[in-house]
Amino acid sequence: MPFTETALRDEYAAAVEQFSGRTLDAVRDGGGAAVPVGTTGPDVATDLDGPARRPLLAAARVLGANLLAPQLLVGAPPDEATAALLAEARRALPVPTAGTEAGALAIAWQDWAARCVLAATPHPDTGAAAPPPPAPPGPADLGWQVWSVRMAQLSVLALPGLDGAVHDAARAHTLDLARGTVRAMLRRDPTTAVRLARWLAWAQADGRPVRLEVEPVLDRIGFVGDGTARSGLELAVARALLTRAPWKGAQR
């Protein structure tokens, strides 16, 4: 791999981690903005232009709907500056490509989630009215092990205000989500475990029996996790979901 490509990938990965940390702080603050407004510095979205801005846009593209999680979790209006950056990122950067049909379907659902959260902001996506992607295969088709891994890839959908075929599957198969979480813990895969635990926290907030005590699982993941801000964001979202009463009026 050429050095320049490796350096660029590292720069983008660092931007994702930095932006994850900022969003994590906003979740912990109870609904703050991931993009601070009226401040200065090389890492502030409104102060960047040219090549320095592209890693930030790439990070926003990767994080997608998670960028507005701080407000969605507390029922507040989406942060306009963060929404504007996410909308810009989606205009500037193409939908990522996938090497498999399953990967393409996962990306399509992640893209759908971003479209949905932007629809409630002054910066709606041009494809906001597009229909949702096809329903992914369920555990009856894939087996619970494979299905749970694919649900972990879709953890960004586990947010208030989103509802669709993926959420219907989570409601119907909480036992398989619990099995997948335990399996990931036993395999020492805290990244998959925390994403599945986030789905369990979402299902519990949705009023479903989750077949597993989620809070001790989150405590354990926090202790043995990889320590990255991105995993920390998944953990914080899951914890915030556990504090919510069952909600109504989710968006399809």
Distance between the termini: 42 Å
Helical content (DSSP H or I, runs of 4+): 55-70%
Radius of gyration: 17 Å
- Helical stretch tally: 12
Low-confidence parts = 38-48, 248-252
The beta-strand count equals: 0
Overview of this structure, please?
- With 252 residues, the protein is mainly α.
- The chain has twelve helices and no strands.
- Helix 7 crosses helix 9, helix 9 packs antiparallel against helix 10 (190-205) and helix 10 runs parallel beside helix 12 (229-242).
- The longest helix is centred in the N-terminal third of the chain and has 26 residues, at 3-28.
- It is globular.
- The N and C termini lie far apart (42 Å).
- The model is unreliable at 38-48 and 248-252 (pLDDT under 50).
What's the quick description here?
The chain is built from twelve helices and no strands. The chain has helices at 3-28, 54-63, 69-72, 80-92, 101-119, 139-142, 144-153, 165-172, 174-186, 190-205, 214-224, 229-242.
Search tags:
single chain, 252 residues, mainly alpha, 12 helices, 0% strand, globular
What is the strand and helix layout of this fold?
Layout: H1 3-28, H2 54-63, H3 69-72, H4 80-92, H5 101-119, H6 139-142, H7 144-153, H8 165-172, H9 174-186, H10 190-205, H11 214-224, H12 229-242
Helix pairs in contact: 1-2, 1-12, 2-4, 7-9, 7-10, 9-10, 10-11, 10-12, 11-12
